[in-house]
Amino acid sequence: MGVSGSSLLDENKSTHIKGQAEAVLKEFSLYYRKQFSVAWFSQVEDDLGQQKQKITQLLKQRGASEEDEALYEESVLYFDDTRKWRERYVVVRANYCLECHDSLQTFVEGVPAHQMLLPTGGKILTTEEEYMAIVDKCFPDENSAKEDFAPPLSGMPGQFPVYLHLPYRSDSYFCFKQQAKQAAFISILSHCIRHQNLDFLKKKTCEVQAFFKAIQFYRQDKGKYEAWDMMIGGDARVLANVVMEQLLPSLEKDMLPGLKAKKNEKKRVWFSTVEAAHLLVQEHLFEGLSALKEECRMLARQQEVLIHSDMDQILNLRRQLEIKIRDKLAEPAEKLCSESIQPYLGLVLEELMEPISAGFQEGHQLTEKMMDQVCQDTLQGHDNERLKKALAAMVRPNLLSCYEKISSLQAKLQHLQERFGFSNIIVVIHSAQIDLQELIENAAYTFEQLLNNAIQDNPDDASSTVEKVKHRVLKQYNHDSSTVRKRIFQEALVSITLPFIKKSLAPTCKTYGPANQSHRYSSQPPSGGFPRNAAHIETPQLAQTHLQRRNLAMDISPGALTSQLWSPYRDPAVHPDIRRIQGENAKLLQSQ
């Protein structure tokens, strides 16, 4: 759209931007190498049989969809780079990427998509006023005129637009003539955004766990303890967001005053420039991160035999460090929790539980309704094709109303910004919505499996058989729903309070830091693990009371929470220079 951003990035500017990216990557690499060793050690420890017991669910787990499986197909009006509305055939697959094909025919013929759109970090809006408010907020020139940046309403070929705002990238615009089709598109687009934002960081691989922790500690060392709303997407994208956060002020200072564009083009030129810079940064970081990960994997494989042989000594050292850190930080942490967190936790927990439980309860009702329909079709002897359609509809139901109930959490917890400095509740919302989606998919899959087996075993008593299957699945749904919500509430409480605790304890941790850094196996700041434990020191009984009121009793005793929340203090157990472990252990023990 408008002037190309790449035309504004001459060789000097491109070199400067690459230099900024390289500087961030070099500094970040120090954190990543340490955290990769930590994650690798944790994996070895788990492989040796010391892993925690996993929470089991009763519903059968539906396997992940094949990435090329189509979840949505529809002809959509799309505002393209020529600033004209054109009909495109949009396909969404299970990789949660939007494919914009020239037509249904080109799609069927296997012609590559005209455009691939990754909606990571996207915000969906349906009015020009809402969209322009976001655009104006992102544009740094406050004196800029409110010109026609969005597609003009007068030329829009339908009454129901969809504006997709994307961070550091060109926005996208769609239009529909029917509100039902707009709603269906918004539903699948929201689905893609949730998964694109969170799926990568939910992976349990060493690379992902190391990256997540390294970003946290990198930002904390710069005084940024709050939950970050740009911790979304893959590793190269997240690190590019770090670079852009640091780069934008200088980019604005150096380039904005010199933009030689007409007044009504100024925003388009700026956003195109930002997009070109972001693309340049991401490409540079992708190569650097790939090399860094391979380096860490090779080093970890070399260390694995030594880790096995020295496991007892490593664990003993870890316990000693934990005790020393607890002794130093326990008193200020408990005081902070009792005075500044415990009085407010009851309200926070109640407000978390109400909208999330309402969404899951509606999911229960929807699942029961769909099973009733399948049972009715079965009893009335409808053909297999109709039965298959009913079962397929159960796998991908319309969950918009359920999602809206969970989304109401955002309005309920606005006071958290003032109390705890927590503003990233959208991550809690999206994560809960994904959990609900997976729960309903598992219920549909379990129902289909049990129904087929039951009918085959008792073809002459279909009425009784299908009712038993339905009640069995609903019981399993209720059990798994309770289990999932317990985890959501516990993780949310920690996410809300932990940054506040870390920031509050930072001065105490820094005074203790130099002494602790003398130990080579302290691979993260001493503030990393204890505050996570302290987040629950004063709250187990309170949280238990509230959860029991909703039949959500869970093990949140101090011991259980300590075991869970001290998990970062596996970190001091390992260091890349593992060959020196024998001598270092001896020196440490002698000094105590």
Brief descriptors of the model:
592 residues, alpha+beta, seven-stranded antiparallel beta sheet, globular, disordered N terminus, disordered C terminus
Describe this structure as you would to a colleague.
By secondary structure, the protein is α+β, with helices and mostly antiparallel strands. 63% of the residues lie in helices and 7% in strands. It contains 19 helices and 7 strands. A 7-stranded antiparallel β-sheet has the order 4-3-2-1-7-6-5, sandwiched between helices. Strand 2 and strand 3 form a beta hairpin. It is globular. The protein starts with 10 loop residues before the first helix and ends with a helix. The N terminus and C terminus are likely disordered.
Give the secondary structure arrangement, pairings included.
Blueprint: H1 11-50, E1 70-79, E2 85-93, E3 98-101, H2 104-108, E4 115-117, E5 123-125, H3 128-138, E6 160-165, E7 172-176, H4 179-198, H5 206-220, H6 235-255, H7 266-309, H8 311-340, H9 342-379, H10 384-395, H11 400-407, H12 409-412, H13 416-420, H14 425-457, H15 462-516, H16 530-534, H17 540-549, H18 558-565, H19 581-591
Antiparallel strand pairs: 1-2, 1-7, 2-3, 3-4, 5-6, 6-7
Concise overview:
By secondary structure, this protein is α+β, with helices and mostly antiparallel strands. It has 19 helices and 7 strands. Strands 4-3-2-1-7-6-5 form a 7-stranded antiparallel beta sheet, with helices on both faces.
